[in-house]
Amino acid sequence: MRTTAPDVSASGPLSYDVVIVGGGAAGLRAAIAVAETAPALSVAIVSKVYPMRSHTVSAEGGAAAVIKDVDSLDEHFRDTVSGGDWLCDQDAVEFFVEEAPKELLRLEHWGCPWSREPDGHVAVRPFGGMKQQRTWFAADKTGFHLLHALFQTSLKHQQIVRHDEWFATKLLVDDGRVGGVAGIELATGRIETIAAKAVILCTGGCGRVYPFTTNANIKTGDGMALAYRAGGPLKDMEFVQYHPTGLPFTGILITEAARAEGGWLLNRDGYRYLQDYDLGKPEPHPVFKSMELGPRDRLSQAFVKEMEKGRTIPTSYGPIVHLDLRHLGEQTIDTKLPFVRELCRDYERIDPVRELIPVRPVVHYMMGGVHTDIDGAAGVAGLYAAGETACVSINGANRLGSNSLPECLVFGARAGEAAASHAASAPGPAASLAAQAADERRRLEELLRRDGGRERVSTLRQEMQAAMEAGAGIYRSRDDLVKSVDRVHELQDRFRSVRLTDHSLTFNTELIAALELEFMLEVAGSILHSALMREESRGAHQRVDFPRRDDEQFLAHSLICRNDDGSWRIEYPPVTITRWPPGERVYGR
Amino acid sequence: MRTIALRVARYRPEDETEPTMQEYEVPLREDWAVLDGLNHIKDHLDGTLSYRWSCRMGICGSCGMTVNGEPKLTCGTFLTDYAPGPVTVEPLRNFPVVRDLVVDISDFMGKLPTVSPWIVDSEDAAPAEGEHLQTPEELDEYQQYSMCINCMLCYSACPVYGLDQDFLGPAAIALAQRYNLDSRDHGAHQRVDVLSAADGVWSCTFVGECTTACPKGVDPAGAIQRYKLTAATESVKSLLMPWGRRSDLPRPSGADQDNNAWSREVR
Amino acid sequence: MTSYQPPMSLFWWLRRRSYFFFAVRELSSVFVAWFVVYLLLLGHAVASGEAAYREFVEWSARPWLLGLNLVALVFVVFHAVTWFRLAPQAMVVRVGGRRAPPLWVAAGHYAAWVVVSALVVWVVLA
After folding, report:
1. For residues A376 and B18, what is the distance between their CA atoms, to the nearest angstrom?
2. ipTM score here?
3. Which partner from A107, A312, B126, B221 sits 20 to 30 angstroms from C5, CA to CA?
C-alpha cells in the first residue's frame, strides 16, 4: 500500500525570527533560551538528524562545574587556562566557569538524572587536568542523558518548531547581514529556503575529516563551512584534540572517567609509561592532574613517543596500548562505568572486569571553530555560533575533558539570548535573498542531475582523511603539511567532477554525502593552512620543526578568512589575558 | 578473502510500487558489524543504497533495521554471527518505508509530546534555588526507564502496534513512567489521561517482545504492566470514593484539570 | 511524500513463539469468559433451591459440557500462569526499603493461589 502525505510545498516560504542549525546540546539550549526569554519570537531548529540522534548523545564522562565547597571558580579557571596552554580568552573562561554551575543546575531541574551521593546531593568525579573533583556525571552516559533531557524539555515549548532531517547547504547573506538558510528536506528532496533574522550555528565538530575518530558519521563540519563560505572567519583551526583512549578499528571512545576512576595505561611490558613523560609518579590511586589524569594532548603525545620506542603493541589496526580497569572491580565498573563495559562487550568482545582494553589515540574534538565573541556573535551581522562549532575561545590549545558539555549549555544559552535580542530589532529579510536562494537551488539541482563526472564521493573522502592524518596528526612538520595542503587543493579540484549515481529525490544520502564532503574539504583546508602558519608548539598543535611554545609571536589566535575566489588569509589577533599571564604547564609535580 | 552475502531490501518510490531484494557480497571480517557491510556497499558497490546511521556505538538510535527477521541495531550486530549467510537486511517492521532501509517515524515523534516527557514542577513550592536532593535509591526508581534511545526496535517488535497504529507504544509509555517515577516530578496527574486511555497501556496485551528487542535493557513491557496496576488502583479508588479527589496521583496543586495548559486529548 | 506501508501478513502470529502465545491468549479469552458465565449460572442454580441445583449438576455432567469445561480449565490455568509471570513486573514490592526480588513476588502469588485453592477444596469437601 502506498500512502502520500499532503503536499505542503504550495504554502508560502518559511520564515522565523531565529533559526538554529543543529539540534544537539548547544542548539536545543539556544532554542529553549529563545523560547524562555523572548516568547513572542518564532524559533525553529533545523537539523540533519532527529535532535536525539545528535552527537552530544555520545559524550560519556561528564560535565565540569564548581559546586562543592572545597572547589572554587578560580581553580576551574586556572585548570582551564593552563590546560589550554594560555590560548584561552580569559574573559570568556571567567564567564564560563561562573555560568557552568547555573546551567548544570538548570539541567538538574529539567530532569537530567545526575549520579548522586548517598545523601542525595549531586556527585562529582575527578577528570583529566582538573585539580578538584568537579565533573558532574550521569554514570558514563552523561551526554546521552543531557541531550534527552534537553530534547524532552524542548518539547514543552510549543513555539519551538522543528525541521528534522533537513540539511542546510548555504547561509543566505546580503550586504553583510544574515537573512536565512537554504537547504534540503531529506525525505522529499525538496530544496527550501528558510528566512531568518538571526541564525545560530550549532552543528558540532568535524572529526570526520580524519580517518580515525570518535566522532559520529554526521560530524562533517557543516556549520564551520557554512560560516566560512559566508565570510565568517574560523579561529584556531589547527588545534585538533586526540583523545588518548579510543577502541581500535571503530574509534569508539572509552571515557576519561575510566582513568578518573583509577584506570591505568600500560605499554607492551605492562608498565605505566606515562611516568616517563613528566606526568608524575605512579600511585595506586588516581591523583589530580597526574599520570593518567594528565591532559589529553600530553597523553596522546606520550603514546606517539612510546610507539617510536617500540613499546606499543602491534595489531592489525595499528599500534595500541592497554587500559587496565581490572583492579577497580566489577562493582565500581558496573555503577560508575557501565557504558564502558557495555561498549567493550558489544564492540570489542572483551570484558574489562577481567581483560585489558586495547586503546590508541583518536581524533575527538576541535578546539577551533567559527570565530565568535562572548555572546556567540560570529563575524557576520545576525550570525551566531555555539558549542563545538564555535570558538569563543575557552578551550585554547587543548580542551579539558568535561568542559565541552557545559560549554554547549553556557554559550548555547548566551547565543540564544543574543540572537533573540538581535532578531527583535532586525529588519525583515532583504529582497535580494530570493536570487541567492534561486542560485543555490540551481546548484543543487545540477549536482543531483549530473550524469558525467569521474570521481566517487567515497574515494575523495578517503583520500582527504589520509591527507589529514599524514599532515595534521599528533605531530606535524612543514613538509608534511605542505604536501597535505597540496593534496586537499587537488581533491577540491577533483570534487568539481564528482559523480552521483543516485538521482532520486527521496532520502538521497549520496547527495548529502557529497555536500558534506564539499564542506569537509573546506574545513580540512582551513586546518592545514592554520597548522602550517603556526610555527610553534602549543597544546594539541605540536610541530617537530618548532618544538617550543613561542609567546612572542603566537600568543594569538589564528583567524582564517576565505576570500571570494576560494583563497585564504590569516590574521593573528591577540589572546585576551585578564589576570593570569602565561606560565609553565605543570602536571604531576 | 571470505565474503558473505547481504540480501538488502530496496525501495525506490519513484521507480517501484513495492520493495524488492538485492544481493551484495561483502567481506566477512571478524569485527565487522552489519552496518560496516552496508557502508562497504555504499562506498564501493552501490552508492544508491539509503539507510540511516551515525554514532556506530549503540547510543544515537539511528541504525535500527530488521536483520534476519529480528529488530536490531545494525552497528552492534556482527556479520560473523550470521556466517556463512546470507544475511537479510530489511527496514524496521510496522513503519511506513520511505526509501530502502529508511522508515518514517513521525508517528512516534508526534506521540512523544503527548505524554509530557519533561519535569512538571510543583505549584505548591517556588522553583528550587539549588539542586533537588535525590538519593541513589530514588534515582534507581526511574533510571532504567531513562535509558531509552528512541531506536524504535520495540515498536517494530510489537504486534499490537503493527495491528493498531493508534497504540501509544512501548517507548512512549516507558518514558512517561520515567518521569512519573522521578522524585522531582509532579506531573503524573497530567499524564494519566493519555496513559489510561484505550490506546494507552490497556492496548498492551503483554506480548513482551518490546523488552526482548530493547538493546538498552529498558524493559518497556514492565513499565506498561506497572502502570496498568497504577491505573487500575486509581480507577478502583475513584469508583469507591467518587466524592473524593478524582485522583491522588501527584498533581500541581491549584491546577484545574480542565484549565491545565498541559492536559491534552489523546487524539 | 510517498511511502510504502508493508501489509501485515495473515500469519504474522506464527512467526514467533511469543506472538503465537499472544494470539492464543487473545482467542482463549472466550473460554475464560465462558468460565465466568458458567460460575454465574452455578451461583444462580444454588440460589434457586435444591431442585435447580440438581438439574444444573446433571446438565454439567453431559460429555460435551465436560469437554468444554476441561478446555476452559486449561485456558484459565494458562491465563493464571501468564498473569503470575507478569506480576513481578507490574508490582514493585518493598521489603525494608529494598525492592523484593521478582522471584519472591511470583512465589507469593503462587502461594496465595495454593492457599485459596486449598480453602475452596476444604469448603467443598467438608
Report:
1. 48
2. 0.95
3. B221
